[in-house]
Design goal:
This protein has about 240 residues and is of the alpha/beta class. It is about 45% helix and about 15% strand. It has one domain: Rossmann fold. The longest helix is centred in the middle third of the chain and has 33 residues.
Length: about 240
């Protein structure tokens, strides 16, 4: 199951398509019909549900009706860039309603629902949350986004500890800049992307498949001993 919110070449879209190709029964959830139509056109076997996951109670109804969910990828997210000292109260109210509600609260809600079902069925499961390099290192003018993703990492570690004894694994992937449609638009200008590339030992930004492959690994039995881990997909940015 793949909650996802954006249109275009996206990480969530590619994960869904590649898992379906691997034989998984995939359900994609998004509030954007264009994205769901694109996903369906790429693989008609994928079931799609148009829904805004920030609606806590309605999300509970949607997830409950799905039936058993063994693998979960929480991929929905929004960014926000602004110098911290320029924030006003209205900004905070909007951030609370959109950034934290989507990046953190909705992720917690869906994870809660899936884990409850796994426990009821006494079934193993694997969950991967899409976090960010921004949770592991400060990024200029990304203060609120960094905070929302750091919350995802902390939540992931705590849930991994709590439900590891039930063979429910939960990890995050923490990508650097990834060349989605939005990534190319925002970072292709050398004046913008150059300083970031200078800090990446591999001297390139990530491609969508770099993230997809890591997520599929963490969902698989090949990662059976990995839980509570935040995996940087950053070309060495964090370690350099």
């Amino acid at each position: 199951m793949f909650p996802r919110q954006r249109v275009g070449i996206s990480i969530g879209n590619d994960i869904a398509v590649q898992l379906a190709k691997s034989g998984a029964k995939v359900v994609g959830i998004a509030r954007t019909k264009d994205l769901l139509d694109k996903l369906k056109s790429e693989n008609p076997s994928i079931e799609t549900i148009e829904h805004d996951i920030t609606d806590w109670k309605k999300t509970e109804q949607v997830i409950t009706k799905l039936g058993p969910v063994d693998l979960l990828v929480n991929s929905a997210g929004l960014g926000w860039v602004k110098p911290m000292t320029e924030m006003v109260e209205k900004d905070y109210d909007e951030l609370r309603l959109f950034i934290f509600t989507l990046n953190t609260k909705a992720l917690i809600n869906i994870t809660r629902l899936v884990v409850k079902d796994l426990l009821c069925r006494k079934a193993p499961g694997a969950i991967v949350n899409l976090s960010s390099q921004a949770s592991l290192a400060g990024l200029l003018n990304h203060t609120v986004y960094c905070a929302s993703k750091a919350a995802v990492d902390g939540f992931t570690r705590a849930v991994a500890l709590e439900y590891g004894p039930y063979n429910i694994r939960i990890n995050t992937v923490n990508p650097t800049v990834i060349m989605t449609d939005m990534g190319r638009m925002a970072w292709s200008d050398p004046k913008v992307g150059g300083p970031m590339l200078d800090k990446i030992p591999l001297k390139r930004f990530g491609e969508v498949r770099d993230v997809t492959d890591a997520v599929l690994y963490l969902l698989s039995d090949k990662a059976a001993m990995i839980t509570g881990h935040c995996l940087p997909i950053d070309g060495g940015f964090i370690s350099s």
